[in-house]
Amino acid sequence: MDLYNKGARLEEILEENLPIEVKVNVLFDVLKNVLDEGAIRARTIRFKLQKYVNSTNINERVYALDVIASDGNGAKVVPSDEDLEKSLEDVVYWISENIAKKYVQNKIEADVEKALVERQDKFMDELRVSIIKKQKGKENTKTTAKLERLEKLDAKHINKNVMSLLRPENFEEVVGQERAVRSLISKMSSPYPQHIILYGPPGVGKTSAARLALEAAKKLKFTPFDEDSKFVEVDGTTLRWDPREITNPLLGSVHDPIYQGSKRDLAEVGVPEPKTGLVTEAHGGVLFIDEIGELDEILQNKLLKVLEDKRVEFSSSYYDPDDENIPAYIKYLFDKGAPADFVLIGATTKDPSQINPALRSRCTEVYFEPLSSKDIEGIVNNASEKLNVELEDGVGRLISQYTIEGRKAVNILADAYGYSLFNENGEESKNKITLKDVEEVISIGRYSPFERIDNLDKGEVGHVYGLGVSGFLGSTIEIESTVFPAKKKGHGTIKFNDTAGSMAKDSVFNAASVIRKITNMDINDYDIHVNVIGGGKIDGPSAGAAITVCIISALTDRPIRQDIAITGEISLRGNVKPVGGIFEKIYGARRKGIKLVAIPKDNEKEVPLGLEDIEVKSINHIEELMEIVFEK
């Protein structure tokens, strides 16, 4: 081995006057330096040389050395004593071959590595030159021409948004929502403003009221709002985010330096860049989320955490707090988070039971009322003043028959305004909207009357108005009944709409029992048919009292006042039990032109204050109701 370390040639090992055992040991050591131990072990096992390698017989050891060095291409049998020197020469030849191969392989690898380094350096130089060229100047002839084209396009406006023009500019223009507006302002105009959820039908002024409430609060010194407080508005139905946090416009996200396009100077040094979201933009002001009930549930939960912490935390596997290349603002965002202290106002058309309970528990609630016909007329009149147009008598009333939404009423008026600008001859007309203009717009738009107001002065037998609720809107339900003598006495039947619902059918059977009790009439002697006009589904027992008086009217041939509407569950004892949605039901009765609403006594406290155009009476028992509904 010493001879090898001194750089002696392999042939010199054979020429040295050394015992053959020493030569074999030296050649084994040389082979171990040429081949790694793994390769030697593998060849030993593959050619089954274990016993030869460790043999005390020198001939067998030379055979093993030859087979390992030649990888099985050399000796096939153990050499004899006469062939031993020749075998050692073969071993030297095979080891020399391995040394030559290893030398060439190492040289090729070194050349490849050198070429790769040179190419990498060249690529980085080219990349730096490219970046320098791009950063050399912000503008050139092409970018300047494109900017001029954009500015020219931006200076030309064809469509002015009528909704922006007619948007309420003060609380007086938010028609029909006096109670909701007072409640909203009181919650905002405080040293400790609360998060708020606004409930109500679409187009009644929730967004406008929220925007005006912030402006009012900014003028008060004791509120935390100031002139810089923003009103940031976003639509919950279109707000999308990526669960992997690649993008999150609401809360913010982190742009890593490789995949998500951080700034060029940050990408070069591998620095991730946080992008703040709308919650940070709304810091110190109001974040308004329209249709908050449609917001993704996971995103709602993340928003709740921001409401608690008043900050947004960022994290990234690329962030190294000890990296000196990280700008101070990025380090601030990662270490402390982004500020997000704001008042959340969410608006929804959903029922409160459909809103996330955790979100509701952190917010106070304000209910916006459905708009009455008078409210719609007021909105139309306000809009006509802003359009500087005169209305023919009855235009507001006509529009109010086809919508309960302030936004849609304004759209109908705007369409009629455009229609009225030119007459049939194409000449510019007077600045006036006529009934004919509105009727034409309604016909073209295929609008349907929201509620038909019929003649309610004349009483009818077997016909009564019940009351129902759908969402935030109440409406009247027409119920009629007729009776015939049974073909066979004592075998009468009762028929009712199959689509009305099981609870409504139970109300019919309850009514039959009550009628038998208070009139002493055997209803089994009659075939009774009760019908809900329109085939609507009734989800609940609230039509029970109305069904009862309707059947009694048909049985006794007593006419029922048609200007009265009834709601209440009927019990087997004839008691009128409380039901839900009283506020909405009274609203529906007002739109129909009803003069009197009969409600259960236990619902008396739910009647809105200040009703002028409708009377509400509370009753305990069906006999009290009969005294009211039947014409004298």
H/I helix tally: 24
Ranges where pLDDT stays below 50 over 5 or more residues in a row are: 1-8
Known CATH architecture of the largest domain: 3-Layer(aba) Sandwich
The main pleated sheet reads as: 7 strands, mixed
**Rg computed from alpha carbons, rounded to a whole number of angstroms:** 45 Å
Strand content: 5-15%
Q: Indicate how many domains the architecture comprises.
A: 4
How far do the termini sit from each other? 133 Å
Q: Please name the fourth-level CATH homologous superfamily of the largest domain.
A: P-loop containing nucleotide triphosphate hydrolases
Q: Kindly name the structural category.
A: alpha/beta
Helix coverage percent = 40-55%
In CATH, what is the class of the largest domain?
A: Alpha Beta
The pLDDT mean sits at 81
Strand order of the largest sheet: 14-15-13-12-16-19-20
User: How many DSSP E strands?
Assistant: 20
Q: So what's the overall shape?
A: elongated
CATH fold category name of the largest domain: Rossmann fold
EC number: 3.4.21.53
Active site: 542, 585
Catalytic activity: Hydrolysis of proteins in presence of ATP
Keywords: Hydrolase, Protease, Serine protease
